[in-house]
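Quick start: read one record
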Amino acid sequence: MHSATIPPMGAPRRHATQGLETPPSVRKRSAAWLVVAPDTAEERRFSVGDAPLRIGTEAGVEVLLTDPHVSRRHAELVRTGDGVALRDLGSRNGTHVEGMAIKEVVLRNGATITVGVTNLRFVTDAPPLAPRQPTPPPLSADTPPRFGQAVGQSEAMRHVFALLGRLAPTELSVLFIGETGTGKDVLARSVHAASPRRDKPFVVFDCGAAAPSLIESELLGHERGAFTGASADRQGAFERAHGGTLFLDEVGELSLDLQPKLLRALDSRRVRRVGGSKEIPVDVRILAATNKNLEEEARQGRFREDLYFRLSAAVVSVPPLRSRLEDLELLVRAVLSEGRCALDVSRDTLDVLESYDWPGNVRELRNVVLGAAALAESRVLEPRDLIFFRPRRRDPTIDKLPLAGRSLDAIEKAAIAQTLRHCAGNKVKAAKALGIAPSTLYEKIKKYRL
């Protein structure tokens, strides 16, 4: 193994792997990612920041692999003055770039890295994300209808529980995505409780609830005198979670100007308090949740793509309640037990509850059940006890509309006509709602004679 070949006198110096000479575009600091399994639907990406990005099978490394041919700490990517360097860490089977064994080399964009039998790719041009279509973990007959405080007997939730059971013992960052009220916070707490950090703090930081002027202080902490009202030193969420888990709730609401500071803390595992000069090391596992499509937000420039990659080492989609109504009875009984309500629930009551599509999901169900339990006239929850429950259905989502067999022109014409009526004929508002230019709308109105 070698780290460089020595070129003839006067020839340009090259690194160990042919074709990996450092181009000028890489010598300046640029965004860089390590892509795992780039040719499959299970693509994972890791941002290369200021701290080393370690690859291996040992819990705690940033790029955790399950390849038995990979060493516990196999290799690492680090930023240097010339760009991003890949270093072998004394691995058993060596590290290869473009088929050549290396000890250290500066990578070019698109370079293929092989560790064990796993291929990775180094990229600096941020190509579009591959579709995330992970294969659900296999269910076994003994997959329980519960994970920590979360319950569900539907196939969708048992797949989630099986996946979280495998993720909990690792150090991977997990991003929970799903509608408001689906129980993302409960699942995050359950992951922490099933992890090796269970005896350490679980700190929740609500990115959407903190005051904009104080959010940096709440997240990173502040020194006395840093701003008006800062009468004492204060630990931020990162420091309070040291040794444990930091849960970033509604992370999609974090302002763009604070996202680089969060990314820097995640990459370096160090924080600098507002008004302070000292960097404080922190050891935290990151879990995050959002009801937004962060992938689309990143494409639209409303969320940093490198931060999205950093948070989404594992992505868990939490299904809405309306898509798993077979869980409703189990959830109702769990809510009654949690509220210490010595009540049963009748089949008629469950039928009423199942007739609703629950836009507020499990959180809404919990409020309805506890409200009914407080007013119950017997030891069985009956429909008459649902005094504050007003069954209603939302307009069907577009995937539920009867569109099959209709031409695209007919669908587009109907969408434009409905939007114009909704906007009281205001074409500028209608064009904005449809996501097209007003000039395009005028052309389509003429085309369809609307």
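Confidence is low (pLDDT under 50) at residues 1-28, 129-134.
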